[in-house]
Automatic annotation (TrEMBL):
<dbReference type="Pfam" id="PF00300">
    <property type="entry name" value="His_Phos_1"/>
</dbReference>
<dbReference type="GO" id="GO:0005737">
    <property type="term" value="C:cytoplasm"/>
</dbReference>
<protein>
    <recommendedName>
        <fullName>Alpha-ribazole phosphatase</fullName>
    </recommendedName>
</protein>
<feature type="active site" description="Proton donor/acceptor">
    <location>
        <position position="81"/>
    </location>
</feature>
<dbReference type="InterPro" id="IPR029033">
    <property type="entry name" value="His_PPase_superfam"/>
</dbReference>
<dbReference type="InterPro" id="IPR013078">
    <property type="entry name" value="His_Pase_superF_clade-1"/>
</dbReference>
<dbReference type="GO" id="GO:0016791">
    <property type="term" value="F:phosphatase activity"/>
</dbReference>
<dbReference type="InterPro" id="IPR050275">
    <property type="entry name" value="PGM_Phosphatase"/>
</dbReference>
<feature type="binding site">
    <location>
        <position position="57"/>
    </location>
    <ligand>
        <name>substrate</name>
    </ligand>
</feature>
<feature type="active site" description="Tele-phosphohistidine intermediate">
    <location>
        <position position="8"/>
    </location>
</feature>
Length: 199
């Protein structure tokens, strides 16, 4: 089974930590996603199902694409971005000016530090993995082999970290460009999901 992870494009609050804020795509953000998907379709990529975070910066594009391709669409709350608590909608520059030490710790050791009143890394990882397990089960039940998941940078970075078996504190160094596609293969044995990266 294969998951192609599409990060949403630029949004109206792209200069901030958006987390669960429901900001919209800019015109440029929509074009970033459209361009990436068009290249994939030109390369004969085909999906059995479109899965999306319910936040509109993912969902609106996913709805349009599912209609265009005539594919089923599933919304998964677990595929939302990490929740940044008091930092939601705040620029990193502002946080740096007010809480430089906490921000530095968060960038270096995200598994140990999190935004005030935000989601801890453990909570985030548990939520995303629960979502991936649900997606795997649904794909198995429907005999779907390939899914496009429209999601967020944090989700893609976490899964990339797990795929590459890198230290989870390297999370924020992982690639997840706006509007770009990242591919993983899923397998299931010993009651666990296992990942392999697709280049």
């Amino acid at each position: 089974m294969r998951l192609d992870l599409l990060r949403h494009g630029e949004t109206t609050f792209s200069h901030t930590l958006r987390g669960h804020l429901d900001d919209e795509l800019t015109e440029q953000g929509w074009l970033q996603m459209q361009s990436t998907i068009q290249q994939a379709l030109n390369a004969q990529m085909q999906w059995d199902v479109i899965i999306s975070s319910p936040l509109q910066r993912c969902q609106k594009f996913a709805v349009a694409l599912a209609q265009q391709l005539e594919k089923p669409l599933l919304l998964h709350t677990e595929m939302k971005e990490m929740f940044f608590g008091d930092w939601e909608g705040v620029s990193t520059q502002t946080i740096y000016e007010t809480e430089p030490e906490l921000l530095a710790n968060f960038w270096q050791f995200p598994t140990q530090y999190h935004a005030p009143n935000g989601e801890s890394f453990a909570q985030f990882q548990q939520r995303v993995m629960h979502g991936v397990n649900r997606i795997y089960t649904k794909m198995q039940q429907n005999h779907w082999h390939r899914a496009l998941v429209v999601t967020h940078g944090g989700v893609i970075k976490l899964l990339t970290c797990l795929v590459r078996q890198q230290a989870l504190d390297d999370l924020l160094k992982m690639p997840a460009e706006l509007g770009k596609l990242y591919s993983l293969e899923l397998s299931h044995h010993d009651n666990e999901i296992h990942f392999v990266e697709n280049k």
